[in-house]
Amino acid sequence: MQPEVKVRAVELVQAIGSWPAGERDAAMARVGALGLEPTLVDQAGALRPGGAQAVLEVVDAQYGGILADSASVLVVCRQWVRRGDGAVVAGGTTVDVRLRKARPRWEVAALHPAEPGAPAAALSPEAQRLLDAGTSIRLPPAAVADIRSGQVRASVVRALLDLARTYRIDVSVVRSGHPLNVFGTDRPSDHPRGRAVDVWRIDGHAVVDPGTSRALVEEFMRAAAAAGSYNVGGPLQLPGGAADQFFSDDTHRDHVHMGFRS
Predict the structure, then answer these.
(1) 74 and 172 belong to one structural domain
(2) Quick one: which of 22, 164, 243, 256 is 20 to 30 A from 201 by CA?
(3) Is the CB of residue 213 less than 8 Å from the CB of residue 26?
(4) How far apart are the C-alpha atoms of 143 and 28, rounded to whole Å?
């Protein structure tokens, strides 16, 4: 685990996505003050909507991948923007922040904000139930937009609804805002294809928290497999299951990944 990598990513997202009244256009100066390339602001996309003032809350900072000299941190955030007419609009996004190791601090190489796509004309009853699940399944803004786009597979939706009968689930990433390939490889990730979901908190306990019960995480991972996931990753390497059904690595120390074949 390299917490300084996450700190660096969060600092940048906050510098771009939150600004005092009248200072939206000072984003490059704020980024430069962090010792980062100011033109990263040009890659901010949905993180930088129009508005007189903005407040940003980071929900979670999750590894999209971590290697010795490079990393992806998925910064999941909510944002409230005050428009010129005084109205406050709630929104948010997820940003895949790419970093490279440098001294004295890691550098940010690129930003890839979520692009969920337009809402579908109609949703399945199950997808609508997922959106209406309230506190039993907490979805951040980009994940809500993913579901509304109609591009998330029914297997993912059904598994979340099934798991929510037993657990309170905080989702970090579904489809958008995740690397296109498994980090550090040329293998396509299941996320952009709408065939995966990541969970960062179970029953109010963060997966990454050392105080979170190992038994709770193991139970949830096994429940995910029972709900149809062929590829369950997390902080624990579990025995049993189908061949290679469970896995663990440095990237998955802070969340539970559930992948589906269709």
Answers:
(1) no
(2) 243
(3) no
(4) 28
pLDDT one-digit tens code per residue, 183-213: 999 999 999 999 999 999 999 999 999 999 9
Judge if 50 and 102 occupy the same domain.
Answer: yes
Nearest 5°: CA angle at 149, between 229 and 90? Answer: 110
Query: Using one digit for the tens of pLDDT, what is the confidence trace for 68-90?
Result: 999 999 999 999 999 989 999 99
Task: Give the contacts of 36 (CB within 8 A, at least 6 positions apart).
Answer: 12, 107, 108
Q: Examine the domain organization and report whether 132 and 47 are in the same domain.
A: no
Helices marked H in the chain — which ranges? 3-17, 27-33, 125-131, 141-149, 154-163, 214-226
Phi and psi at residue 28, in whole multiples of 5°?
Answer: -60, -40
Domain boundary among 90, 113, 136: 113
Q: How confident is the model over 225-238, as pLDDT tens digits?
A: 999 999 999 999 99
Residue 211's SS3 state is coil
C-alpha distances in Å from residue 11, one per residue of 39, 70, 80: 15, 17, 18
Residue 32 structural domain: 3-113
Establish how many alpha carbons lie within 13 A of residue 36's alpha carbon, considering only the half-sphere containing its beta carbon.
31
Q: How far apart are CA 198 and CA 171, in angstroms?
A: 6
